[in-house]
Specification:
This is Glyoxalase. By secondary structure, this protein is of the alpha/beta class. Helices cover 33% and strands 15% of the residues. The protein has one domain: Class I glutamine amidotransferase (GATase) domain (Rossmann fold, 3-Layer(aba) Sandwich), CATH 3.40.50. The protein is globular, with a radius of gyration of 15 Å.
Amino acid sequence: MMKKVAVILSGCGVYDGAEIYESVLTLLALEQEGASYQCMAPDIEQMHVINHLSGEEMPAQKRNVLIEAARLARGDIINLAQADPEEYDALIIPGGFGAAKNLSNFAVAGAEAIVNPDLIRFAQAIHQAGKPVGLICIAPAMTPLLFGEGALCTIGDDASTAAAIEAMGGRHQDCDSSSIVIDEQRRIVTTPAYMLAGNISEAASGINKLVSKVLQLS
């Protein structure tokens, strides 16, 4: 039976939403592994809008996370608040600053961060049902907030981010972009992707391994 994976997006664009390459690589790997997927995102306003040409904030602009994420999903996307965890065999969350700005406020609050309540509801339901979860790039920073004290993850080798994860109760393991870290007990798989990757091929190496392991565990 074909496995169905929930993919939670956080907008569209590395600086204020979901990282586009990571998201597309995730969807491609799922399809190549013979799985189906459903993209979803919270129907909320982005923290802010960034000009991806200059890197500067555009304070006059407002954008919606679900509407922006629909660009990545080619319109085939649902509101996270309406998603039923029982319909899915696994969950994967690509990175991009949207994970730390829209799905959580880790980008500004660090170890004092909180997570979007719809994401908490969905991710914890998946986890409590014994289904695996994959988190990519900066998304693993939410691991201890979603899955509890002692949860193991990686964001690569950034010391300050790793320290924040451990301050929230998580355990961090350094990892290169072509590898994955697995919390076998909690069925959590993480990879650094563009936290360390120098190009799309390097990001793909770790993401492909993550997708394969998530599906193996599901």
